[in-house]
Amino acid sequence: MIFGIDIVKGSLRGRIRPEYALVVLDNDKEEEYRVTRSKLFRMVRELKPDIVAFDSIQELFSSKRELVDFLKVLPSSIKFVQIAGKESLHAIARRYGIRMNIRSPADEARACAYLASFGVGSEISVFFDKTIITVSRNRSLGKGGWHQNRYRRRVHDEVRMIFNEIKEILKNKGFEFSEDVRFGYGGISRGTLLVNAERSEVPINSFKTKNVQVRVEAIERDKIEYIPLKKRVRHLIVGIDPGSTVGVAVLDLDGKVLGVRSKKGWSFSEVIEYILSFGKPVIVATDKSNAPEYVSKVRSAFNAIIYTPRDDMSVERKIQLTRGYKVFNDHERDALSSAIEAFNSYKNKLMNIEKRMPAGYDLDAVKAGVIKGIPLKTILGEERREEKKEKKTVPSKVDREEIKRKDRLIEELYEENRILKEEIKELRREIESLKQRIVSISREEHERIRRDNYIKTLEAENKRLRMELSEKNSKIDELESKLAVIKRMRYLELFEGWKWVKVLKKFTKEEIERVEKEFGINENDIIFIHDCSGGGKTTAEYLIKKGVKAIISSSPMSHLASSLFEEAGIPVIDVENVEVEIADEIVLLNSKKFEERYLEEKRKMEKRKLDLLEELIQEYRLKRKNI
């Protein structure tokens, strides 16, 4: 059973509770639901699917701790699989022939489920492949005399017995483990076993007796690890330009340029390593009609197909193919042009494969197989079963008219064949004539082409410089506008009793460190925060330790952060309750109105503390009275 999930509305950190589209694949059955987060988790616990697949883990869990706590209560056989990574879900679905509407959460959930069934995606791993078993007392022994010592000895002896029994089970099952023992009066007070196996493989479960408790837990990772379900090899088309300076161009099977590089004295092993960093070549291409030995050597290293043009590629053809791509020298241009030419020669065949591909197969791998000459049906695993039947030939009467008709057809085909051969000869002569014309192009024509290209280069440079000038003029206008605002704020600061305050764009650790580094955060500073949504315990405690005077917030702050400021006696004032002037990273505050509001907030905080204290006293008196 596989769950495919996508969020429909809401978010984990927003006011609207999230709802999810859920598609359940169970053998040949497919069911679709719309569920809340709590119902989704309940279905996972009750139905125990093999895989729970989703676009991103952040749609389900707001933190690693929340994820770990949920996984602890589930069987370890359930895999949580994230489908998208560097590629979007839509791109991956397209590669596997799955059609989907990107605006439909149900379609995205369905795509996640089917892609996971194909072995696509990465399993979320939060535990190491190690398990810790802790055997200890189930209760505190306390102080006591002779009878208490006898009881202590009996409990410690029970801990020792259960610890040794578990060790014996692990040894008999062939598990590797290490142990750590804390001895107590009459036996063991605590024993720990670190087993080199996943939690699901260890044949011991947590349990308690009257005097002993056994806890079996997986060891948590520091960070979430993403483990691919299947290792996918990207197939490539590689263009090589050999020589003292080697040029290499790498394309994928969609014709997208992944990398172009050249290097003088580039060793063969380094070239191979560079190519492998992108994937595995299925075609190695050159711009020569006869492949150089170096190119053949690269082809052999990858057991790839070699591509050579019918004739050596001309400079004009190379320039035409690489127009629009950034190349730094002739070596990179030659390598890239040969790779593009190879792709173009297979382009129609590859497009035809895309149209014929059924869902559930890696399009990239299928294309690579077809390029190597493997039939599509063989790649897709379709086996043709032909039944051999012996058929008895039944003598039939010869139809003379049918024989004459076929003789005429044969004569017509012979004549058509002769005409086509003549046309082929004529076309070959024409091709040879055109080759001679190309060879006889004058130096003046070459010079004209070079001059035209130079003029085009100058025109392009001129256009680029004009655009750059326009951008700089726009920047000057923007800065002048900002300067006018700053002058006005400076006037307010000097003559109207306004005060400059330090600004945090976001309530995050990184933003606090940036402001600390650039401006410093000192005692009695007033801090203005544009976006308070990212704030938590760490960020709040940092500002509290700095001894800031007050916080002015432009958006709602988390309850935890505001509570910490409340406990520290630092008011959090909404921007609507003070008068400010805001311009980008500069904020001015009306000192007089701020002080009035600040004192009012401090009085409210003191009142809340007194009210709380009074409430506690009343509760205490009530309890005393009941006693």
TrEMBL record:
InterPro entries found in the cross-reference section: DUF460
Coiled-coil parts of chain: 403-489, 595-623
Keywords on record: Coiled coil
Domain of life of the native organism: Archaea
Protein name as annotated: DUF460 domain-containing protein
Protein's organism: Archaeoglobus sulfaticallidus PM70-1
Source lineage: Archaea, Methanobacteriati, Methanobacteriota, Archaeoglobi, Archaeoglobales
